[in-house]
Inverse folding.
């Protein structure tokens, strides 16, 4: 008797074999809650992040953390940028919790607080989603002098090899 292997298992195995770019965190699972310590109600430190499947030909990585539900998830009006990093070396496997020293060559962009660095979830109302987007690029970007997300995305145009997302959620406790 032949074993029947579900298509989803075959697709998962093929994706892993083909080098599917994936971003994960040991602090929270995809689409689940971000622990309080990574938010404005906690220590406001960056969560640990890991990635795998960086494709051949990648010259640099970009990490963008954003909240598309600002200010109210029932009536979003803007995307709030929490963290922008670019020119992460392609051999980098992730970032430690509360990362202070970024990998050599990594540059930072301005978040929506008009600062560099990580700013944790701090939604004014409701449960928000926080997208941790990782991009593999075929170039090392020039020094963009602390760009906004718009400037960073413009510089990335035509150079994205692969993209991965990790989504976490958070709602303030009163």
């Amino acid at each position: 008797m032949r074993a029947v292997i579900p298509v989803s298992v075959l697709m998962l195995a093929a994706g892993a074999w083909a080098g599917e770019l994936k971003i994960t965190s040991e602090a929270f699972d995809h689409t689940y809650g971000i622990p309080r310590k990574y938010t404005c109600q906690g220590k406001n430190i960056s969560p640990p992040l890991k990635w795998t499947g960086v494709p051949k030909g990648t010259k640099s990585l970009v990490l963008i953390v954003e909240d598309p539900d600002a200010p109210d998830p029932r009536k979003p009006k803007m995307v709030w940028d929490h963290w922008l990093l670019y020119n992460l070396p392609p051999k980098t496997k992730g970032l430690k919790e509360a990362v202070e020293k970024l990998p050599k060559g990594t540059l930072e962009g301005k978040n929506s607080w008009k600062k560099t660095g990580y700013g944790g979830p701090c939604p004014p109302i409701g449960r928000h989603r926080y997208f941790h987007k990782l991009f593999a690029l075929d170039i090392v970007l020039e020094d963009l002098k602390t760009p906004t997300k718009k400037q960073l995305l413009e510089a990335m145009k035509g150079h994205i090899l692969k993209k991965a997302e990790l989504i976490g959620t958070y709602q303030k406790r009163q």
In short: The chain has one domain: 22-170. The first strand starts at residue 22 and ends at 24.
